[in-house]
Specification:
The protein has 261 residues and is mainly α. It has eleven helices and no strands. Helix 6 crosses helix 7 and helix 7 runs antiparallel to helix 10.
Amino acid sequence: MSILGATTHTAILTARQLRAFGRMPVYLAMNLIQPIIWLLLFGQLFKSVVNIPGFSGGSDYLVFLTPGIVMMMALFGSAWAGTSYIQDMDRGVMDRFLTSPTSRGAMILSTMLFQAVLTVLQTLVVLGVAWLAGARFDGGLPGLAVLLLSAVLLTFVFAAFSNGMALLAKTQTVLIAISQLISFPLMFLSSAIMDTSLSPAWVGVVARFNPFEWAVAAGRGALQAAPDWGSVWGSLGLLAALAVLMTWLAARAFRFYQRGL
């Protein structure tokens, strides 16, 4: 299939998911409730950790926490992206797509783009709530733009992963179990809510290979007054490379799904 044809399919399938979302906008609000609660609750409960010797996250815990909450929201939302595939399987829509000339890559990319749109909308709301709660970010608009880019790349990685798992698992129960099994360890083995310099040494070592930590580090680093752009772009590069790999693997999963029919 030509690039133009694949692009057209991607646009049509993305619009399909956006129309479905437009009929149930409450979905966006439901996905925002938990992150906002965590932002406000954790921001108050742990605000004194900035006074612990060795804490390297600055003097305002809410500023430190906000990028972590943004990435947590992106992770949990995208990890459930494959549920739309399960629904299509149950309704027979998936089989119709696979017997048509629809691009397999477009089917993957459309879900990733849809999740990215939701991530951007949710991130803007969380940033607004953080600002109202008193958080001020020295990185300005460039830093916020990089934070959004980090969240989108993280969304791409785990939306593609979720799509691939959905095609292999074929049931929502298994997909949810896998998503929860992966999401929570990735979140806690990072600096999302606690500076890894205050954690056991092995946590910091594991965090270096954690894609969730790459996103948190890139977003948080870009929001500083004097960002280490080499480190920020290095983390973004790793996320982009992983997103490409996950997209390719997810597209390959269609073969395993069809063999199992």
